[in-house]
Amino acid sequence: MTKGLKFPITGDEKADELLEDNPLALAIGMLLDQQVPMEWAFKGPYTLSERLGHLDPQEIASMDEEEFVQICSTKPALHRYPKSMAKRIQTLCELVSENYNGDVSKVWRGQKHADEVLKRIQELPGFGPDKSKIFMAILVKRFDYEFDNYNKVAAPFSGKETMSAADVSSAKALAKVREWKKEKKAKAKAVK
Q1: What CA–CA distances, in Å, run from 35 to 53, 82, 96, 124, 153?
Q2: What pLDDT score was predicted for residue 1?
Q3: Count of domains forming the chain
């Protein structure tokens, strides 16, 4: 990828740069990362910022719900399920505005212990146990954050195996993550 991006996941340099420069964009991208390709999910924040002209959590939280759903649904939609994801994005922005003074990075910045960071991430709407661990792994592997006990708390995503968005450092790594997910689905299907 160009410019040595730390998180070249979307295939679009401007979208990747937004993920690196804007913590809310990164959180929204992770929120959208389910049931759609990773590139689509993580490009969503860039598409949203282009449509809105900003990614201000207080403004997003206060928007009319139907209007926001329409913005998220306009083709190309931000997600396969734009209505439900629009509601989650607004809920995320509301929580960030109320609990973190509009700065989602306060969820992890200045924190020392992985347990506390994981707990805070899991409080974000749409962030279940695995998604929260992957997000923490992204913070560590792609953005150089350090948290005590990270390897244990974020396992298995803290490991060296290329298995999640946290491991995407190049197009080749993205292909490896896809292959790992494909194998995992095949194994799960074979067990049924």
Answers
A1: 27, 12, 24, 19, 25
A2: 29
A3: 1
